[in-house]
Write a structure and sequence with these properties.
single chain, about 130 residues, 7 strands
């Protein structure tokens, strides 16, 4: 059952990682499955890429990557048109109580506007 779907990130960034607003950490931590849909418009740079990694925490102080590989792993961004990318966590591993998304660009002096939409699903209890 879908419990949440919204745009949770709309930022212009460079190679410095940014995180979604911490107000979403508890809600994202309630998920069984999480879908991430990214839209990026490159403003400058050479060979830009986009990485979005789910990080988890039991206390919002100590964070680790949920999976070894990012859910969106160095997706190549177009220099001339809008790029879309999608990643998923299908819930095969239980999550800690809090989840955040780390958003980062790669390449040489990248700069892009990145927007993320997420859909959170939980198992329906009858």
């Amino acid at each position: 059952m879908r419990v949440f779907q919204a745009e949770i990130f709309d930022q212009t960034l460079d190679s410095t990682p940014l995180y979604v607003d911490s107000a979403y950490n508890s809600l994202l931590g309630s998920m069984e499955e999480l879908s991430i849909f990214a839209v990026a418009d490159v403003l400058s740079g050479t060979a830009p890429t986009l990485t979005v990694q789910i990080e988890e925490s039991p206390n919002q102080i100590h964070w680790i990557n949920k999976q070894v590989s990012p859910e969106i792993n160095a997706a190549a961004l177009s220099l001339t048109s809008t790029t879309t990318a999608q990643g998923r966590d299908l819930g095969s591993l239980p999550s800690s109580g809090f989840i955040r998304l780390r958003v980062q660009l790669g390449g040489t002096t990248p700069r892009a506007r990145v927007r993320l939409w997420v859909t959170v699903r939980v198992e329906q209890i009858n």
